[in-house]
Amino acid sequence: MTNPQDAAAVPAPSRIVVGVDGSALSRRALEWAVAEARLRSAAVHVITAWEYPAVVVGMEGTLDTREIEAGARHGLDATLLRVPHSDVEVTSEVVQGGAARILIDASARADLLVVGSRGHGGFVGLMLGSVSSQVVHHSMCTVVVVRGVSD
């Protein structure tokens, strides 16, 4: 018979959270996270965040949030198809809200958070994007920022 204390001593599998926004650097972040998950026998949880865009006066109600969310899901699925991961447990979700806040919240349930150094938006040429900067400073777990070859 197995001692219950022995079972408690076995650490739970690691959980790696990775933020994906459809950019090349976020795909590289996912590739890095999957490779790390193989080394750690960890699970990967992929998150894409989306926000309702700013509305110009007179355009209220013209955008369907279901279309925006569906577009975000399509982008996430397309990224997952480009990164081989059949040997790693991968889950994903699309969440409405600011990417930095969503990822910081998810870091409370992660052993590692992985993001690209910059994604869509922002200013080309910045070494660290606003989302990656925010998660580095506010996450509740270790953060890896994957840089591009031109950084």
TrEMBL record:
Domain of life the protein comes from: Bacteria
Domain UspA stretches: 15-147
Pfam families: Usp
Family stated for the protein in its record: Belongs to the universal stress protein A family.
The protein, known as: Universal stress protein
Species for this entry: Agromyces indicus
